[in-house]
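Sorry, I am new here, but would you mind making up a protein's amino acid sequence and the tokens describing how it folds?
***
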Amino acid sequence: MESTWAVAAVVTAVVAVATVFSVLKWAAKSLNEWIYEAKLGDRRLALPPGDLGWPLIGNMLGFLRAFKSKNPETFIDGYVSRYGKTGVYKVHLFGNPSVVVTTPETCRKVLTDDEAFQPGWPRAAVELIGEKSFIQMPQEEHKRLRRLTSAPVNGFEALSNYIPYIEKNVLESLEKWSKMGPIEFLTQLRKLTFTVIMYIFLSSESEPVMEMLEKEYTRLNYGVRAMRINLPGFAYHKALKARKNLVAALKGIVTERRRQKLDKWAPKRKDMMDQLIDIVDENGRKLDDEEIIDILIMYLNAGHESSGHTMMWATILLNQHPEVLKKAREEQEAIVRNRPAGQTGLTLKECRDMEYLSKVVDETLRYVSFSLVVFREAQMDVNLNGYLIPKGWKVLAWFRSIHYDSEVYPDPKKFEPSRWDGFVPKAGEFLPFGAGSRLCPGNDLAKLEICIFVHYFLLNYNLEWLTPDCEILYLPHSRPKDNCMAKITKKSSVAA
């Protein structure tokens, strides 16, 4: 009898604790909703389905748990299973009440309606990339500076001129790696793409300066999407220090360039740095040092990381799919075979005629989804799919959900370049570089770099990935935990 009462007491205690916990959990989540929704009055009834999570941390624990697992799709899948495929969900992420949009139609609306939605990056990203960079800049100023800086990055003449430099660095790097034994493939690719982008910005600086800039930028990038915790040991704290060092180095370069412009004997260049120094608007205003530095750091963020990661994944995925590798290699061999006598090196036309390789690159961009989300902020109350997005709330265009939508891409977790045969995605269905007026400013240069690298790799080299079972990390970008330890070997018969 006593044991029965003891068991009953334990059960009662457990039930009581569970009940108290459930009540506290409900109260805590209700508190977060009251803080952000009560002020909306009856309009709150029109909010999208979802929840705002816990006070202060919101839904970040669920987000981190999903993206530190083997299946990051579970984060959005959880909302779909609870609330249906509405394409719009309320959440609390990165410190703000937000709405996540997950379908091509909703993403297209958010990314192309500049009147209703403006950039809304987390405060950490703005502080690290720069208050005066494109990610924070007002629309009219953004249009003006984008117009002035696009030709030196993505223009036909610029891309044609960059090809020999990219080729030279790709060939030298591949040759060097083939003699090094095991390497961190991703680390070496990031060094390569950093060298290229820095050449476009600064023409030539000493190798130690380049190495220092690359090291500091890497630290900065890891903090861009981290939680804004400015304490030793956290990514954001390290990133702030890295930005300070980057700004100091770039400030020295800007100062020296301004001095050289006054010295008729100094070397004359016309790289991105000079372009930014020389820009004069219709009112005669020039950019100050802070504006120039923030724009340069923003371009580094846009044109460096994505190229290196995509090169790595394209090479890995080709290696894992022999039939795709064979077809891609045959196309590149045909390009060399059919070029005019006396021509050495690629032309822009040849790069743009790489029909099958272009499909491989697009499929890699979809499969990897380097940028899983971009941030906007509602400038007014907006009705989207019948739901209210309140003015001031963040809006997260969730690219990864679109690229893994089985209605758009059947069997989305399969790497299948042939899915692009005759397939032209509708607006909002393929967003590796975003969309609308804020489309990634270095998209054409990035694809050119990737195609040139894969071209020469296919012709002359092989990859042996030494740790194919390595854990994959998804934050801040998809990559093997060990940065892809690999051996690069030269083929016995080398093409031109």
Notes: The chain is about 55% helix and 10% strand.
